[in-house]
Amino acid sequence: MSLIFSAADMLPKIRLFEYQEESMKGETIAAISTAVSSSGIGIVRISGDQAFEIADRVYRSPKGKKKLSEQQSHTVHYGYICDGDEVLDEVLVVLMRAPRSFTAEDTVEIDCHGGVFAMQRVLETVLKNGAEIAEPGEFTKRAFLNGRMDLSQAEAVMDVIQAKNEYALRSSMDQLKGSVQKAIREIREKLIYHIAYIESALDDPEHISLDGYPQELLEVVDKEQQKVKRLLKSSSDGKMIQEGIQTVILGKPNAGKSSLLNLLIGENRAIVTDIAGTTRDILEEYITLHGISLKIIDTAGIRETEDVVEKIGVGKAKQMAENADLILYVVDSSVPLDENDEEIISMLSGKKAIILYNKTDLKPVIRMDTLEEKTGHAVIPVSAKEETGITELEEKIKEMFFGGELSFNDEVYITNARHKAALEEADKSLDLVRNSIEMGMPEDFFSIDLMNAYENLGKILGESVGEDLVNEIFSKFCMGK
After folding, report:
1. What distance in Å separates the CA atoms of residue 303 and residue 314, rounded to the nearest whole number?
2. Would the pTM count as exceeding 0.85?
């Protein structure tokens, strides 16, 4: 079996693109790596073969004798950034020698004052002395190309920056630390072992027998496919963790939808009047409840109308409801249900929904148990006016979508649409392996589909993707990262 492992080790890693060699010719890049706004501290990062030499040209120590290129890695140095004889700023300079840096290249980070003009002057001086301006995401792209991280970890860098809530941050940090990488590598190791075994047996049938092997392989495929399906199952939760639960507020005019939105976001964002049909267009806001993000969408009241503009708004509301993760149906408890309510109730079929029994500060004419029976969904009494019922709503949402809690101990959440697509393709390939075994097909059919699954999983790690995709992924990063 040791021969089989050797064969697996010799399979090429496809991550090394033709453009990698060109992009690593020694070009040294620089950019501002903090927000370009007034702040206490700003960082200008330099990375590449000439990082220390360029730093020497712009840095002056208080005594004027220290050369940064002669200093040890992972040290901090006080001094000044100068453009010729002009002192631009008082700074701290952090030195990191390859490969012990974010990019795995020689890296210098200049901690200067955070004024926009001050940072720009420091960057301009660095560029004037030999650096090239970095493209968006180029530092992280170099970290990937230099083997510092795989593509799933590189994408997690941006997810950490864009995290909107506690769960999104924790999930992104887990991916940055390699949770997705570890899960995918474990599956791929099993697949490549059996690919190598089949190929070895086909090449040397006298010494390696395949008698009874298809049944053994079927058990392996079942086990590894379960892992793939578990990751795919997590993607619905993962998408909501990362992007927020798409939540549409429905109700007929004057039910209190906009008042509820204002209460949830904590400000008067939506216009609230006693005039029916005030809300005519879609209004979107992000809020965080118990660490979970909701993308709240307020919509026009559902009713029959001859007003052209309002009719368009009602149409949009119905369309948004079809694509919603969650519908909050706001019912005015002080007025009877009518045909508009019946239409909304029909829209709740097959959807996750919560019925908000609003205006509990007024005398009700609708019973809560009647609403629950008619809709088949949980009913929560609320009053946007008295600001009651919101805690119960928060708990209900958490219970509905995450079983009351999210676990980050052993669970890996797939939050990236690209990862999900690759897992789906791998799942299909494993289905084909199973079909070939059950149909008694020759063993070389097994290895073809096993290899397809292996390569699709490799796309997640960046071992089987092309230049265009990599460039597209990193182009979405912010400058300086």
Report:
1. 7
2. no
